[in-house]
Amino acid sequence: MSGRAFLDSDVVHAFRQSPAAIASAFVALVLILSGVLAPWLAPHDPTDLATLSLLDSFKPPWPAAKAEWVNLFGTDSQGRDMLSAIMYGMRVSLLVGFCSVAIAVTLGILIGLTAGYLGGAPDTILMRIADVQLTFPAILTALMINGIAGAALPRTMRDSMQVPVIILSIGISLWPGIARTVRGSTLVERDKEYVLAARVIGATSWRIMLRHVLPNVLGPVLVLATLGLGLAVLTEATLSFLGVGLPPTRPSLGTLIRYGNDFLFSGQWWVTIFPGITLVLMVLSINLLGDWLRDALNPRLR
Amino acid sequence: MFAFAASRLLQAIPVLLTVGLISFALFAFVGDPVTILLGQDHTEAQRLEMVHRLGLDQPFFIQFAYYIWAALHGEFGISYRLAQPVSRLIAERLPATLELASAASILAIAIGVPMGVYTGIHRERWSSRLFMAVSLIGVSLPAFLVGILLILLFAVSLEWLPSFGRGTVVPLTSWWTTGFATWSGVRALILPAVTLGLFQMTLILRLVRAEMLEVLRTDYIRFARARGLTDRSIHFGHALKNTLVPVITIIGLQFGGLVAFSLVTETVFQWPGMGLLLVQSVAVADIPVMSACLLLIALVFLTINLIVDLLYFVVDPRLRASRDP
């Protein structure tokens, strides 16, 4: 699709008509950009230990007395600027979120296409596995895979492998929903005439699946991928909050919340509440965008 | 109905065996029990003798059969971290989780269903709109943040309720201790139960409301009004009853979610239950506890799905009438 055709499409038109969609897209975009561009935008580098001073610790956020404009969201126990820590944390959260959704989408599309196009025994077996996994909540599956990988890896490799392990475990926990949807759409597309035509001219099954069927089932996948990003970010934050997620050397939003939780009773609420608000805003805006996309791509609801 | 239940039970067995295989594979391939038991310094003869005594020289499937046999008798080995039998650890922690989960469910149903009915009947009132707006927040907030906010408000600022632990517990049997019997136990239960139940409550509220709106539009409700029945009898005797099938499905399936979220809630409130045990075991790779929890969770989920399927028969007479479902 060319750029002009995209700008004239129904979805873009529906987007311009919906203030809720524009607002949530704006919030999501601002958050994603400030996370991705953190090393250039953040006022301070929280990983640079040399610039930290314990004299700066636990400064309250901006409107309070004694607070400084520089530390808008206050500082933590080691004098780290919370705003910068949150921006770097978002970067890690988003990295894990995007990568695990990429894994889930790849797995889901391959398995869904295979099951739907081939039918028969592969279909029954693959969908049975998906059904069984769907009965367990994603967070539990991710926790278990994470635990098994942690136990299987040698002790020296655990810290360095933690990020890939988390990405993989969240990715695996999310595939069944996508595979089921792709399979459903493939079943509909499989018997249409263009597939028959492709088969008549001698295209292989793989070619028909990837070149002809896949583009026609991508709409629902896009919706599930958007909602999946929200879920992946939330799952990662939950795992990190439980202390089985990312190591403290690469703090994500969840790690920041867990760490700040220890200071709740001594009155330094901002160390945990600001990362929390950021997480809620991010997940909420992504979810609202996904919900809107689902309605916009569904012609029956228009 | 009996045939249906039996076929469901038969379907559950391969799933349980698969989960059992995974949890056994954890035992068999992760870590080296012989080195753990003998220490680093041992002769080859000692090693072979230990391998023989543990049955590790048997074929894989014979070992698996022994494992399943032991699991059926409640034997899951010894925890690496706590050096206690896993079955005893779980038995000690189970009551805490069950009490928390049932308190949260009762809270969610007792508040969610009436609020759903209310917002369904009076959909235009401002109070209904307020409930719906609040429920949207309840759906979007992650469970651990709800817990943190409740602690900040009721434990740190207002100092009304305790923020961690179970309070004073009273032993009922040799291993079942209950927190319901003392005032401090009940007080300690409030914040975790609200945290755990909030998501479920909002889900039930929105579902009951949507179903009520649907049912109130049907002809038989209009007919019931034409017969001159009271509003009360129409809303609760006729409308609510017919919303129950999807509501039971969701409540049942969400009980699984409750188990998952109890991990989070128990960590926030340091509630000494199964969830906290599992999280701590995963953090230090305590394999016997992990594999036992894996089996137990699969068992719980399959049981819930079975109960939900059977409840359909109780609620929906049409299913009872047809011979084979």
Would you mind describing this structure in some detail?
The complex is a heterodimer of chains A (302) and B (325). Helices cover 73% and strands 0% of the residues of chain A. Chain A has twelve helices and no strands. Chain A has 302 residues and is mostly helical. Chain A has a single domain, classed as MetI-like fold, CATH 1.10.3720.10. Chain B has one domain: MetI-like fold. Chain B is 77% helix and 1% strand. Chain B contains 13 helices and two strands. Chain B has helices at 2-29, 33-38, 44-54, 60-72, 86-121, 126-140, 143-157, 183-216, 219-226, 231-268, 274-284, 287-315, 317-321, and strands at 170-171, 177-178. Chain B has a two-stranded antiparallel ribbon with strand order 1-2. In chain B, helix 5 runs antiparallel to helix 10, helix 8 packs across helix 10 (231-268) and helix 10 runs antiparallel to helix 12. The longest helix of chain B is centred in the last third of the chain and has 38 residues, at 231-268. Chain A binds chain B through residues 132, 135-137, 139-140, 143-144, 146-148, 150-152, 234, 237-238, 241-244, 257, 261, 264-265, 267, 269, 272-273, 276, 279-280, 283-284, 287, and chain B through 15, 18, 26, 29-31, 140-145, 148-149, 151-152, 156, 163, 253, 256-257, 259-261, 263-264, 267-268, 278-279, 281-283, 285, 287, 290, 294, 297-298, 301-302, 305.
